Amino acid sequence: MGSLNIENVKKAFGPVEVLKGINLEVTDGEFVVFVGPSGCGKSTLLRVIAGLEDSTSGRVVIDGQDVSATPPAKRGIAMVFQTYALYPHLTVKNNMGLGLKQANTPAAEIDRRIGIASSMLSLEPYLERRPAELSGGQRQRVAIGRAVVREPKLFLFDEPLSNLDAALRVNTRLEIAQLHRRLKATMIYVTHDQVEAMTLADKIVVLNAGRIEQIGGPMELYNSPANEFVAGFIGSPK
Ligand code: ADP
Ligand code: MG
Known about the structure:
Blueprint: E1 4-13, E2 16-26, E3 31-35, H1 42-50, E4 57-62, E5 65-66, E6 77-81, H2 92-102, H3 107-120, H4 136-148, E7 154-158, H5 166-183, E8 186-190, H6 194-200, E9 203-208, E10 211-216, H7 218-223, H8 228-233
Parallel strand pairs: 3-8, 3-9, 6-7, 7-8
Antiparallel strand pairs: 1-2, 1-4, 4-5, 9-10
Helix pairs in contact: 2-3, 2-4, 3-4
């Protein structure tokens, strides 16, 4: 399970409204990509979904339950950041298992889940290393593995490939697509890369200045952009 409903979500920082009434339905197992220019509110929307930021008004509903007042750790969500956010002093294994340990998951269960995730992400040879001993691509796989072991209903990715070079970006994108097929989990993925959006998404959400310009499948947006803005981002040149 992992359906999500965002109902008229608004978010202001002081006098500045950065989300101006977002409405979105995500069905269980869907891969949804948010695209839009820098500063349009993509990260803020992810943070509101995760509970890292309170909305000013509106509701976030997961599997039919209003989670607007539910703390982040209880929402069944795991988030992967552009900067990996790993603990430098912990091994790969302990980075992956820390959240589960803090939630009092039995050690045998933590090991079982790390075994599965590290196999899926080809991280087995690196489990005893520290982040400084890994490449950028390996670090991002650890960050993804840390999300996987939590068995979330909903994965949130905030520009996870932006710090990687072109070749690694392709590999890691394919791994994320494969993960989606294997886990059948709901994934929401922020990018400003058109290729990532077109290849990963079941559904693309085009954001602009705190509003949704258009929602649709990749080919739908490509062939029938609602306006010049969407065409500029996704559509074929006019
Ligand atoms: P994106 O991820 O699409 O680049 P963000 O969601 O990070 O955009 O930011 C949207 C807008 O909100 C930007 O103008 C940004 O400066 C502003 N903003 C984001 N976080 C804060 C904050 N904690 N305090 C004040 N303004 C913020
Ligand atoms: Mg952002």
